[in-house]
Write a structure and sequence with these properties.
By secondary structure, this protein is an all-alpha fold. It is built from 15 helices and no strands. About 55% of the residues are buried.
Length: about 375
């Protein structure tokens, strides 16, 4: 395979890896009814992906450097395929957890491997364009998956099977092409599977800490719209249409991606100010939407929180890239991703089990107040370190 062919194949794979991990989003309501699962169990199924991805992410970069991109690509893609097949034929809580765990490990292995490989196999070795392709394909796959999955589940046959088989059919060519992919030279002397927490130089710990916590906050909001809200759409809005459940995460990721594409020349403090404001307004709109059972307001809340997510996460990334020393930029950025996935995995578990006793509206109200307080604190801290 030529470098151009490999580059296209890598971009194609990045899209469908992101697509596969987000196929379950509109299906949680069906799982809840079919397998008689509680809200806490649903959020656990969602969060186990992030909880398995984090340790995988910690070792993936070192393993990719030490063993070469090809080996990690092959392992990761076959795991992504296996994760979809496990979920396609899941028959209860444990098989759903197992499928999501495998998806998390695969995504952790592939995210760093694909990002590095796209740079190395870009026909002109253009790092900026390769990085844009990585973020664009990942964002596109993340946005497209819940919408397509919801439409297939609602209007196609076998709602818990068809979306996963579609993903498996599209990721399978990547699994085969991986064997024909040329390898990059492994770096000698790398401790390939040593788990090591990223080292942050003392001089930049405060701005990096603010950025990392901001990433956690905005991704925790996204997790709410990816799990608890779609899973409860039948009780919140009195509709069982899975396409509606799929539209919610689609709207939040699409608006986040468009915002990042359009508004990409501001200062981090501006991003944080606008981002936190949109997140708080969006969550407030969600509370009103639930109170009056309005689909239009729910869509507005998804879009507002998507804009807030895009601005806040971009502010975090810009600030980290500004302060990180070049020799440690990758390590510092990896900490940002770790906090982001902690935001995806940990808070939502508590919200899920809390909603069992309190109900969805009171639980989201508590979440709204927590985000308001934490965002206000982080905003003041961001202005001190600008």
């Amino acid at each position: 395979m030529s470098h151009r062919q490999v580059f296209i194949m890598l971009a194609y794979t990045f899209f469908f890896v992101a697509f596969g991990t987000n196929v379950p989003a509109p299906l949680y309501a069906v799982y809840r009814e079919t397998f008689h699962l509680s809200a806490g169990m649903i959020t656990l199924i969602f969060a186990v992906y992030a909880l398995c991805l984090i340790p995988s992410l910690l070792v993936a970069g070192q393993m990719s450097d030490g063993l070469g991109r090809k080996r990690m690509f092959i392992i990761g893609v076959w795991l992504a395929l296996a994760g979809s097949l496990l979920l396609a034929f899941a028959r209860g809580l444990m098989s759903l957890v197992a499928g999501r765990a495998v998806q998390g490990i695969a995504a952790g292995l592939l995210n760093s491997t694909l990002t590095a490989a796209l740079v190395e196999f870009h026909p002109k070795r253009n790092q900026k364009r390769a990085s844009f392709v990585a973020t664009a394909t990942m964002a596109a796959g993340t946005a497209a998956a819940p919408l397509i999955s919801g439409l297939l589940a609602q209007y196609g046959p076998y709602p818990l099977l068809t979306p996963y088989l579609l993903h498996a059919a599209f990721i399978f060519p990547s699994a085969l092409c991986g064997f024909a992919m040329p390898d990059t030279k492994a770096r000698a002397g790398v401790a390939s599977w040593k788990i090591r927490w990223p080292y942050i130089p003392p001089a930049i710990r405060k701005p990096v800490s603010v950025s990392a916590w901001a990433a956690l906050v905005c991704w925790a909001v996204v997790a709410l719209f990816m799990s608890l809200v779609p899973a409860s759409v039948d009780t919140l809005l009195h509709t069982s249409n899975l396409a509606v459940a799929g539209f919610i995460p689609f709207a939040i990721f699409l608006s986040s991606s468009i915002t990042q594409f359009i508004w990409n020349h501001a200062r981090p403090t501006t991003y944080f100010t606008a981002g936190f404001l949109f997140l708080v307004i969006g969550l407030g709109t969600l509370l009103v939407a639930i109170s009056v059972t309005s689909l239009a307001l729910l869509a507005a809340a998804s879009i507002l929180c998507g804009v807030g997510h895009g601005l806040t996460f971009m502010g975090s990334m810009v600030r980290v890239n500004e302060v990180a020393p070049p020799a440690r930029r990758g390590e510092v950025v990896s900490l940002l991703y770790i906090f982001a996935y902690v935001g995806v995995g940990i808070p939502i578990i508590g919200l899920g089990f809390l909603s069992q006793g309190w109900g969805t509206l009171p639980t989201i109200t508590v979440f709204f107040l927590c985000i308001l307080i934490i965002s206000s604190f982080l905003w003041t801290q961001s202005r001190k370190v600008q």
